[in-house]
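JOB MANIFEST
job_type = single_chain_structure
chain_count = 1
residues = 451
[input]
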Amino acid sequence: MSSLTDIRHGIEFAHPDRVVLTLAVEPPQAKAEFDFDVAVVGLGYVGLPTAIAYADSGARVLGLEISPRRLETILDRRADVLERDQLKLDRALSGNNLALTNDKSELSSARAVIVCVPTPVDDFLVPDLAILRAACAAVVEAATAGQILMLTSTTYVGCTNDLLVQPLSQRGFVVGRDIFVAFSAERIDPGNASFEQRDVPRVVGGATLECEEEADRLLHLYAANVHHVGSLAAAEMTKLLENTFRAVNIALANEFADICSSLDIDINTVIDAAATKPYGFMAFRPGPGVGGHCIPCDPHYLLWQLRRSRVDAPLIEVAMTAIAHRPRHVVERVRDVLSGRGQGLATAKVLLVGIAYKPNVADLRESPALEILSELRSHGATVGYLDNHFDVVTLSDGHVLQNVTQPALFAADLIIMHTTHESVDLDWITTHQLVIDATYDRVSYPTAVTL
C-alpha cells in the first residue's frame, strides 16, 4: 500500500493517488471483530462533535475526512468546537480513542459507519447532492457484512434508500440481514453550550425493523433518548419539518418586526409579552436574514422534491422567498436611512459589525452579511466589516475584504450591527454615529435605528 505517514501525530494518511475498486457479486462474510466501533464520515460542524461524543463514551472511533487542512486543524487542537468538546477531543486523541484518516477503504474496519457531510443548495436554491453522493458511494464500496450504516445529513425523503439501500442491494447484500441501514438526522446547534449532545433526543428510522434496532443500539452508545419512527422516510421528513417550522416562524417574526416598525412599536416588547403565554406560542426573533446550512437550505430539499411531484406548498414557498429577500431589505433600509441624512449609497462608507451567521461561531455558511456587503458594493458603497473570526473574506463578485481592525479609523457613515460576538469591543461607537441595529437588541444599542 502506498501511504504517507505523519510521524509527528502517528496518523497514517492514504496516498491521494490511491484508487480502490471493489467488484463484488456476493457480499463478504461478516467480520468476527472490527477494529473500530464507529466510523464518522466527514468531520465538520456535525461530524466532529459526533465523533467526539462517541469517543467520550468509550467507543473506538475512526474519523474520515478528505480535507488535509481540516485534519491538520483537528490534530493541532484548533477545531471550531465548544470548549468542553475541545477537552474531550484532546482526551480522545491523546488516549487513542479517536483515529483520523482520509483513506476511504478504512471504513470497512468499523462496525458502524455514520455519514455526516454537508447538503447545501446552489445559487439557484437547488439541492447540491454531490458531496453526499460521493460519501455514500464510498461507504457502499467499503461496506462489509455485519455493519450498520447510518445517514445523518439532512436531505430529501427517500435519499437513504436511493443512496444506500439500493446500491447495497445491487452489491448483493440483503439489507436487514447481511447489513443494516438507518437514518437519524443530526441535532447539533453550533456554538450553543446549553444542551449536551447526549441529552438531545435522537429520532431514528430503519430500512427494516432489524435495522432500526441496530441503529438504536448504536445511538444509545452516547444518546440518552432515542425516538423510533418506524421508517427511513418518516425520519427524513422529521428533520425537514423541524427546520421548515423554524424557517416559517422566522419569516413571520421578520414580517411582524416590519409591521411594528411602521406602527412605532418595539417588536421585542411584543414578543416578550406573547411569550408569557405558557402554551401555544414559541418565541422567534427577527434579524437581517438566516444563515447556516440548516434553515436557509433544508426546506429547499423538500420544495425541490415536491416540485418534481407537482405538489404545492405555498406557505413554505412564501416563507423561503421572504427569507431569501431579507438581506436586500437591509440594504434598502440603509439606503432610506442615508437618504434621510441627505446622502446616497454611492458616496457612503458602510461598516458591518459581525459577519458570522450567528454569534460566537467562526462560521460564514449562508451568512446574510456576505450578500449585504455585495449588494451595498453593487450600489457603489465602500464597505468594510469588523469580525475577528475572519481575517479575510471573498464576496460573490470575487472582491476581497480584510477585517477592519481599527474601526474608528474606517470613519463609517453608517454602521450595521449584524452579528454581536461576546468578545467584540464596541466602545469605539459613539452616540453621534448612525447605526442600524439588524439584531433588534434595543438594550445594547438604544440609540440605533432598527430595520
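[summary]
Confidence is low (pLDDT under 50) at residues 1-25.
The longest strand covers residues 36-41.
exit_status = 0
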